[in-house]
Amino acid sequence: MSSTPSVVLFLAWITTDVHSEKILDRLRDSTVVLSPDHVEDPITIITWRYKTHLAADWNGQKAPFSRIFKDGCSLNTETGELTINSVRLEDGGVYTTQINNKTQTAVKLQVFSPVPKPNITLSCNPEETQCTLSCTFNRTDDLGEVHIFWILDDKLKKEGKELNITKETKELMFICSLENSVSSGNSSELQNPLFFKNEDVLYLVFFALYTSLLFVVGLIIIHQSKKNSSFHLFSKSVFIF
Ligand SMILES: *[C@@H]1O[C@H](CO)[C@@H](O)[C@H](O)[C@H]1NC(C)=O
Ligand SMILES: *[C@@H]1O[C@H](CO)[C@@H](O)[C@H](O)[C@H]1NC(C)=O
Ligand SMILES: *[C@@H]1O[C@H](CO)[C@@H](O)[C@H](O)[C@H]1NC(C)=O
Ligand SMILES: *[C@@H]1O[C@H](CO)[C@@H](O)[C@H](O)[C@H]1NC(C)=O
Ligand SMILES: *[C@@H]1O[C@H](CO)[C@@H](O)[C@H](O)[C@H]1NC(C)=O
């Protein structure tokens, strides 16, 4: 019974914490601008903290000073913005700032690497009626959460690391695609291995039918031309072929 108020309190704490922090996802090696949310003119004092360290400090007189980033960052004393050039994975974390002694909304910076180009590995049953396509890539922590999906014939999308196809699958082309919060990447295209088998058979049947038709028609023409002794008709018919 007595646990209810503390649960409510706990939930309230989580909610306010989420609200008092902006989350910023950025690509490794990009330029990141951290902005205070509401500043009043004129700005006389700026402090930026990274975790518990002082990252940048300005008191209206001397040139801004930065202990952690040194040349890697700059402070705009008119807007209070902190710019980090070529951000590294290890620069991720919570940044807090005070402008004119007023605490601003904290920024949680999350830095990720771009997703790699994935590979498709194929395994089919011995009868070659069903195949499983797997999307493989080197999953590392610096990618964050990776969303894996398949693109079938450039339009249909299917979620998941694996895609099963059968002889009934109509699509001809498959791409595996990866996405994290800062980038996306496609595999090379894979042609439907089952469909192209069917196509080969169909093509052979067509070719066989076509040549036998030609043969029969040819025989008829030769027969006719012998009967009529009309060489002219014969050569004209051959020309049409
Ligand atoms: C900010 O705080 C410092 C020390 O607490 C104080 O000396 C200073 O006057 C304050 N400045 C402003 C602009 O409020
Ligand atoms: C994907 O394929 C390429 C080329 O065959 C290979 O160099 C790479 O190591 C493969 N990556 C994975 C994660 O299997
Ligand atoms: C996967 O990543 C690890 C660590 O970055 C690396 O040592 C390994 O060689 C990678 N494997 C492939 C197949 O790229
Ligand atoms: C694909 O087929 C394999 C083998 O039949 C099965 O184990 C697997 O669960 C299937 N995967 C999906 C995503 O349907
Ligand atoms: C992946 O392929 C799809 C379909 O062809 C295309 O729309 C998308 O832009 C591609 N993404 C990348 C990162 O190349």
From TrEMBL:
<keyword id="KW-0325">Glycoprotein</keyword>
<protein>
    <recommendedName>
        <fullName>Ig-like domain-containing protein</fullName>
    </recommendedName>
</protein>
<dbReference type="InterPro" id="IPR036179">
    <property type="entry name" value="Ig-like_dom_sf"/>
</dbReference>
<keyword id="KW-0812">Transmembrane</keyword>
<keyword id="KW-0732">Signal</keyword>
<dbReference type="GO" id="GO:0016020">
    <property type="term" value="C:membrane"/>
</dbReference>
<dbReference type="InterPro" id="IPR013783">
    <property type="entry name" value="Ig-like_fold"/>
</dbReference>
<dbReference type="InterPro" id="IPR015631">
    <property type="entry name" value="CD2/SLAM_rcpt"/>
</dbReference>
<keyword id="KW-1133">Transmembrane helix</keyword>
<keyword id="KW-0472">Membrane</keyword>
<feature type="transmembrane region" description="Helical">
    <location>
        <begin position="201"/>
        <end position="222"/>
    </location>
</feature>
<feature type="signal peptide">
    <location>
        <begin position="1"/>
        <end position="20"/>
    </location>
</feature>
